[in-house]
Write a structure and sequence with these properties.
- By secondary structure, the protein is α+β, with helices and mostly antiparallel strands.
- It has two domains: about 1-60, Orthogonal Bundle (Arc Repressor Mutant, subunit A); about 60-150, Alpha-Beta Plaits, CATH 3.30.70.
- The chain is about 35% helix and about 25% strand.
- The protein is built from five helices and five strands; from the N terminus they run αααβαββαββ.
- It has a five-stranded antiparallel beta sheet with strand order 2-3-1-4-5.
- The termini are far apart.
Length: about 150
């Protein structure tokens, strides 16, 4: 999509305000930007129509939803299996985020568990998410700041 309107400093302030809190009222944004509320409403509508603002979202606190353990899992995968592994991991309800990368690990995931600690990760492992990952070379698991590295395939 080609942006027909140039983004200016006011648009950047609007976007930054929404990034901080997507529920910020237009009147409050107008006070921040120094223009009228109708100007903000028109600019927001234009940013939405141009696809600059694609959605408004919610950020949740895992602990308040009953998840006692949040872990980052880095996986090194053979290139030919990369997308298949990432797609399979995204199907597990405990896996909240999956990204492919060219960094230290070719796949990074965020895993939320209610039962916490290594027992939760053992149950996730037993459930098949790690045992069926043909093409996995290495798995690194960070649990609340601790790191344990192992092999993700038996």
């Amino acid at each position: 999509m080609i942006i027909t309107q140039m983004i200016d400093e006011r648009d950047v302030l609007i976007i930054d305000t929404f990034r901080e809190n997507a529920r910020t009222p237009h009147t409050e944004i107008a006070a921040i930007v120094g223009v009228g509320e109708s100007t903000i409403r028109n600019r927001v509508r234009a940013l939405e129509e141009e696809g600059v603002i694609k959605q408004y979202t919610v950020v949740t606190d895992p602990a308040k939803l009953g998840y006692n353990s949040v872990s980052l899992v880095g996986i090194d995968a053979e290139p030919s299996y990369l997308l298949d592994i990432a797609l399979r991991l995204s199907k597990f309800p405990e896996v909240k985020f999956v990204a492919t990368s060219a960094g230290d690990h070719t796949i990074m995931t965020e895993v939320w568990l209610a039962d916490g600690g290594s027992s939760g990760h053992s149950s996730l492992r037993r459930s098949g998410s790690w045992t069926v990952c043909r093409g996995c070379l290495r798995l690194s698991l960070w649990i609340t700041g601790r790191c344990a590295a192992g092999v993700c395939c038996p």
